[in-house]
Design goal:
Helix content: 25-40%
Distance between the termini: 39 Å
CATH topology of the largest domain: Pyruvate-ferredoxin Oxidoreductase, domain 3
Number of strands: 20
CATH superfamily of the largest domain: Pyruvate-ferredoxin oxidoreductase, PFOR, domain III
Shape: globular
Structural class: alpha/beta
Number of helices: 21
Oligomer: single chain
Strand content: 15-25%
Largest sheet: 7 strands, mixed
Strand order of the largest sheet: 9-8-10-11-13-12-18
Length: 598
């Protein structure tokens, strides 16, 4: 029996399949089985093809696979493509109540199983509209019977999925039961080689959650009180979750909101509002994706040069321009690092798990205030919108770092106070929030040339000195940003550097490489600028592969720019078709490069 396999459901957008697929994924997770769930959906209207995949592996490998072993097709329009995506020894279940290309079915060598899903649920409801949604729960029942998922587990997942909509639990339960009954009666002799086994320890201390939900919750616990945004896929659910949790937790003793959310007219306006809120002393954030990040460039330069705490959370998607707005990518790292014109370098955080998204929310806000600068968090669609198994979140106990903010009494003790003066030698000046009751708290915050007092200046010497100080502040950031996760194999000559959602496939890729006698060490990057750990890692390995999901090797370009002495060691592993990276793609590219090196 095979305990590592992939399930894929092919259907159409707006058919209600998302709920059914999540019930299936949650049920497997509740059994203690590592799962990875990914939704591939169209960017425009209902009725277009959509696919949902669930990776199941007792070894904990949850990344996408190129082909699927259990295929459920509910969309005749994608039959040819779906048949090609079934593994050689896989099973292809399809809804026999629909009109299919019989010639295609006949000529395909894969094992096919016709099931009358529509007929199975005909008596579940009198509502034609509801039955169009319930038909999906029938295949949940079929797969649950074949995989021996306990009915009690299915019931828990149904209640979780439809919490607050208890009226629909009954019809959905009946549809699942119809699928279970059909499989027991008609598929008992089916050669079904896939198996799962419940374990009480598999999901202990774990949760199943997506990155955007985690980030929204993290911002609330991280002290964010202002969110300004313009909706854009795939970041919209991040702010929606922030609103949801803020409405629950950010209330005063009288029940009044202690937070502010503004939907602006565009992305530039949204981020400009964040800069204004940060200037006033609030912890403020905006969420966006690539096109919105581009529009924010001008205000990003203002936040950097005027030194105003602010946070942009960018959930990357496929570009350029509109690109593939519902596909994933890591194509914004270079633009985020140097967003705006002139000489700018921003602190960039790189979460790779839902727990990172939760924790990096406070880290981003802390760093923005400590460094008095813009901090950009780079997530992506795969991490932001897809369910992942994550370690449970812990209540944050670290106090908020509000940075070098002076009170009126502290200003009184500083007769030489200058808004942009480097007193401590770390490049970070002191500031006072507007409204502080002291005459020295009144100063200009300028995006144009200014001296250490904040006074207007076009002096070339003053400008150069200010830019050198800002670089010193960036060097200080190297000591404050999250350090990378490094795992060294003393015998490994090959090093892998990666970041973000790519992390999901790395351990499996290492497993595949080890089978070919290649041992590897890994460095999972958590932030820019690079800490000293990165250079040390580069020194320790003969060949270093930089794994990223973009065409132009953007992270490697930054590495070459920041660490030019190691250019001869660097090679790229790239994937940029909009689909999440697979372990096989990583291992194959490395094996090909190693053959060339040899």
């Amino acid at each position: 029996m095979k305990t590592d396999f992939s399930i894929q459901v092919a259907t159409i957008n707006g058919s209600g399949s998302q709920s059914s697929n999540q019930v299936l994924a949650r049920s497997l997770f509740r059994m203690g089985i590592p799962v990875g769930a990914k939704n591939l959906f169209p960017s425009n209207i209902a009725g277009l093809p959509t696919w949902f995949t669930i990776r199941v592996s007792v070894d904990g490998f949850t990344a996408r696979k190129e082909t699927s072993d259990i295929y459920v097709s509910m969309n005749p329009d994608t039959l040819a493509q779906d048949l090609e995506n079934v593994s050689a020894d896989g099973l292809f279940f399809y809804n026999s109540d629909l009109k299919w290309d019989e010639e295609l079915l006949k000529n395909s060598p894969v094992q096919k199983v016709a099931i009358p899903f529509k007929e199975l649920i005909k008596d579940v409801s009198d509502s034609v509209r509801l039955k169009k949604l319930l038909v999906n729960m029938a295949y949940v029942g079929v797969l649950a019977e074949l995989l021996k998922i306990p009915e009690a587990t299915l019931e828990e997942s149904l209640k979780d999925q439809f919490k607050g909509k208890e009226a629909v639990i009954g019809p959905n339960r009946d549809s699942v039961q119809a699928g279970l009954k059909y499989a027991k009666e008609h598929l008992k002799d089916l050669n079904f080689p896939f198996s799962v086994k419940a374990t009480s320890l598999g999901s202990q201390g774990k949760i199943l959650i997506d990155g955007n939900t985690s980030a929204g919750l993290g911002l609330v616990f991280g002290g964010c009180t202002v969110a300004c945004w313009y909706p854009i896929t795939p970041s919209s659910s991040l702010i929606e979750n922030f609103i949801h949790y803020a409405e629950k937790y950010r209330k005063d003793e009288n029940g009044k909101d202690t937070f502010c959310v503004v939907q602006a007219e565009d992305e530039l306006a949204a981020f400009s509002m964040v800069v204004g809120a940060g200037w006033a002393g609030a912890r403020a954030v905006t969420a966006t994706s690539g096109p919105g990040l581009s529009l924010m460039a001008e205000a990003a330069g203002l936040a950097y040069y005027a030194e105003v705490p602010s946070v942009i959370w960018n959930v990357q998607r496929t570009g350029p321009s509109t690109g593939l707005p519902t596909r994933t990518m890591q194509g914004d790292i270079l633009s985020a690092f140097q967003l705006s014109h002139g000489d700018t370098k921003h602190v960039v955080l790189l979460p790779s798990t839902p727990k990172d998204c939760f924790e990096f929310a406070q880290v981003a806000l802390d760093l923005a205030e400590r460094l008095q600068t813009l901090v950009i968090v780079l997530s992506d669609l795969d991490l932001g919108m897809n369910l992942r198994v994550s370690d449970s979140f812990t209540y944050p106990t670290k106090p908020f770092d509000r940075g070098k903010v002076l009170t009126a009494a502290e200003l009184e003790a500083r007769p030489d106070f200058g808004r942009y003066k480097d007193v401590d030698g770390d490049g970070i000046p002191y500031r006072a929030n507007p409204g502080t009751a002291h005459e020295r708290a009144g100063y200009f915050t300028r995006g144009s040339g200014h001296d250490s007092q904040g006074a207007y200046s076009e002096s070339n010497k003053i400008y150069k000195a200010n830019m050198i100080r800002l670089q010193k502040k960036f060097d200080t950031a190297r000591t404050l940003v999250p350090k990378p996760d490094v795992h060294l194999d003393p015998q490994a000559k090959i090093g892998l550097i990666y970041f973000g959602s790519t992390s999901e496939c790395i351990s499996e890729a290492q497993h595949l490489l080890k089978q070919k006698s290649y041992k590897t060490s890994t460095l999972q990057l958590k932030a820019l600028p690079f800490t000293s750990d990165v250079e040390e890692f580069l020194k320790q390995h003969d060949h270093v592969y930089v794994i990223e999901q973009n065409r132009d090797a953007q992270l490697m370009a930054i590495l070459k720019m920041e660490k030019p002495n190691f250019c001869f060691k660097l090679q790229s592993v790239l994937q940029f078709d909009g689909l999440p990276l697979t372990a096989n793609e990583v291992s194959q590219q490395i094996l090909e490069r190693e053959a060339q090196w040899t």
